[in-house]
Amino acid sequence: MILEPLQSSLALYISVTTFLGLMVGSFLNVVIHRLPRIMEREWHEQCSNLDREETPPAVPYNLIVPRSACPSCGHMISAWKNIPVISWLALRGRCAHCKAPISPRYPIVEALTGIISGYIAWHFGFGATALAALLFTWTLIALTFIDFDTQLLPDSITQPLIWLGLLFNLNNLFTSLEAALIGAVAGYLSLWSVYWLFKLITKREGMGYGDFKLLAAIGAWLGWQMLPLVILLSSLVGAVVGISLILFAGHGRQIPIPFGPYLAGGGLIALLWGKQITQAYLGL
User: Can you tell me the mean pLDDT for 125-141?
Assistant: First the structure.
């Protein structure tokens, strides 16, 4: 069987998973860039329908069509120029056609996805748990960068993530189904309660509904027991980053800071080391 070498060789398994992570990271770059634009196009189409305006048929635009192109000159990117990380380095971070700079974030996302994927393969070993953890992690990476760019956490990602977490835990993959179900409900309601309490006190919105759904998804995957750790970690890191931006980067106090990336980071830490951290804390 094709899978037997992967089962018998840990080094090969980690290498293949890392390479797969690099390829997935390249696709995540497409998702991060295009999904918000797809959503915007859909909103405009809905508004046009409400206004009963006749609009010309839209040019197909999704995660597959059209092919990737340079954002500066529109030159189509060939396959060999789409090799994760290596292509960016070979081209020295510039378009081969117009020499316009290409954002270093593309190889960063690819390298980050590859490294974390390899670590997950080593951490969980060969099996369904590692496969599920990879899917969970890849989704968190996409949500992190989308939220950084747009302060949006798309329902098209967060809602299926909730249901997938419940389905994977039917056989107690990460936690019991009961803990997963309670985690989904508690994750949503906890931030929902904070949102309304903050709004009643300040008359302003402190976070978006996407944050509720992301924490619900994390609860569905990891169980309600991990939610306090995720909330503590994300709040602590978010507060440190927010204060640093205000003090050192001149970030306005009224300018919102996305909370989704910190929730995603807390969820990833809880996935990998949550039980050890909790046990160490209880031991203290």
Answer: 96
